[in-house]
Amino acid sequence: MKKWLAIGIALSFILNGCSTEKPESSKSNRLEAVPASQKYGKLATSQAALEKDSAIIVTVIKQNEENETVSAVSIKKIHKDTTQKLNINDQIAVLESDGTDVQLNGKPIPQDYYKKMEVGNSYRLYIRPSTSGNNYVLTNDFLSKYPTAKVAHEELLNNHNSSEMSTYETLYYTIYDNLLEKNEPIQDANFDNPK
After folding, report:
1. Other Cβ atoms within 10 Å of 14 Cβ, number
2. What is the rounded CA–CA span in Å between residue 169 and residue 181?
3. pTM of the full predicted structure?
4. Which of 4, 11, 127, 172 is such that its CA lies 20 to 30 A from the CA of 73?
5. Can you list the positions of beta strands (E) in the chain?
């Protein structure tokens, strides 16, 4: 009798455990918030460091905005892809800056530097696969997105209400100028026949 009681109790635990488990297809792909202090241990201090830290470097065109922080982009050129999962014309979701200050060595990096991508415009992105969903995240916060068209420096970043230019602003402008020097603007590129 005790044997049957033990088997019955064990069986009910097994069945109960199985019934509350969600199938893989029903699990949410929603983004989970990561505290700003955990996003970046450090930001790149040069273009070489930015390229080294980025698993993926692509030129994209923003197609639409999936929600306030996620943008859908189509890939027009792959400069680097250590994941070897991306193809030309793939559409991917990119988590843009979430508007909270990032802590770097205990000091906040203001997020009002970041200017969101605009639909129809082209950008060079330095990204990596997200650990919390089917999307990609910027490798180095606002240092990870550059328009491919020539834009005045004053139009590249949002105002940060300071008369003094930060080291990171200077780095952003330097990288942007280097990219423009090395590459022709996207409007002149032929994406119907990518190289």
Report:
1. 10
2. 18
3. 0.70
4. 172
5. 56-65, 70-81, 91-95, 102-104, 107-109, 122-129, 136-138, 145-147
Task: Assign 161 to helix, strand or coil.
Answer: coil
Q: Residue 190: left (phi > 0), alpha (psi -120 to 50), or beta? A: beta
By DSSP bridging, strand 102-104 and strand 56-65 are unpaired
Q: How far is CA 50 from the centre of its chain?
A: 13
89: left (phi over 0), alpha (psi -120 to 50) or beta: left
Instruction: Tell me which residue of 47, 48, 54, 24 sits closest to 136, measured CA to CA.
Output: 54
Which is higher by pLDDT, 25 or 77?
77
**Range 189-194, long-range pairs (CB < 8 A, 24+ positions):** 189/76, 189/77, 191/76, 191/77, 194/76, 194/77, 194/88
Q: How confident is the model at residue 126 (pLDDT cuts 50, 70, 90)?
A: very high
Average pLDDT of the segment spanning 162-186: 79
Output 83-88 pairs: Cβ under 8 A, ≥24 positions apart.
Answer: 83/55, 83/56, 83/129, 86/56, 86/58, 88/194
SS3 at position 118: coil
For residue 96 the two structure tokens come to 């843009």
Rounded CA-CA distance 77/74 in Å is: 9
